[in-house]
Design a protein that fits this description.
The structure is a single chain. This protein has 475 residues and is of the alpha/beta class. It contains 14 helices and 15 strands. The protein has an 11-stranded mixed beta sheet, sandwiched between helices. Strands 4-5 form a two-stranded antiparallel sheet. The longest helix has 24 residues, at 356-379.
Length: 475
Amino acid sequence: MTAQMTAEESLARKSARELSALIASRAASPVEVLDAHLAVIARVNPKLNAIVTLAADAARKQAQAIEAAVMRGEPAGPLAGLPIGIKDVTLTAGIRTTYGSPLYRDHIPQEDAEVVTRLKTAGAIVLAKTNTPEFATGANTVNAVFGATRNPWNPALSPAGSSGGSAVAVATGMVPLAQGTDFGCSIRIPAAFCGIVGLRPTPGLTPNYPAPLAWDFGQVHGPLARTAEDAALMLDAMVGLSRRSPISVAPPWKSALATVERCEDARGLRIAYAPDIAGIGVDAEVDEICRHAARGLQQAGAAVEEIDFDVSDGRDPYQTWRGAWMVGRQFSRLAHLEEFGTNLKGNVQVGLKVTALDLAAAEEKRQEVFHRFRELFERCDVLLTPAAPVKPYPEEMNFPNEINGRKFEHYVDWIAPAFLVTLVSLPAGSVPAGRTRDALPVGLQIVAPRFEEPRILSMAKLVQRAHPIGWPPHA
């Protein structure tokens, strides 16, 4: 606990599961929990700018209602009384949702996104909207409406994006849990840069409604949390069959949390570590930390092997798919193209040049890459790789442009270790693996076959247990 931190705020240092137990046992009330997090927000958010809209009054009413229900002995949902953050591209009824765009500066939706409805049904209290680049386009969290979000380990650095606001809010104790979206890296790399757990679920497992592309296998909603168990708790509330989505699927497991809680070792698991699946290189210190964490799973009973696994030929197909995706996502707003920010406008303009032949060639290669992953998972259970190939970079940089002196071919190539997993519709998580010599967190990406989220989070639990990194200094 820092010297600046008040006794009231100490509740905000507890995990979501601990808070849930305190509320259920009446040892702490939802109002007390809310006030603790509001105190952290008041102290920390002005420095880091993670939260852009605060719904404190509505949250207090909900907290009071849940407190009354608990006092009456009524059953509480698994997230009952927990304040959460929702990324500012996800609809929240009655709470401003701007998409980080001046076009929607004062936009107040009339309905919740389905994933928000599910979290509320589980008892969660929507306290805040978290910062994002315009329409989640970009791996640095900055926009013309709210400005830049800063990294809690060093405010001169970026938390990455596009779920940077959610990651910072969780990492600093402003909220115990937050929702994010992930198409390229948008949950995993912010989690890595901020030293928390983030999960990109299998497409269809969490609902995307409403979304411009109903059959979209790219963008998914997922949890950001300080522990693997908390991520599993939140995931359980988010998953399930949705009649509003044509790609929706029900999980083949009953509870991710139950699986993660039971996991105490990795006996019998075959784990592969690949330092550079994207062919772009990796920072030596990042690789050293991730390799050490991977090898450490041998002590938990796993068989760990370092392999060469190169799927760099998926980079161009992803760019093609991403271009068409950008046009589809913004199709209803193309008349406003000249009003978009530089990142969003540029991405849409690239997408407008994609042809049917481009898409056909990309899909053919995408299939090849998927089967390469499939064959890998016939030989191993889990693939580990650095979540990001670089350390957090200066906040004013839009993106890093080189690794080890080697220039990137395309400005999003630096997130290729994450987006190549997106390309083939696999789930993946990021977990803190350690800290660099300058005290910055490094994330280890855990990739597994489709619908293996409980295994991913179980491995994240073991890695966190072996390599605790503590709280960021600006929390």
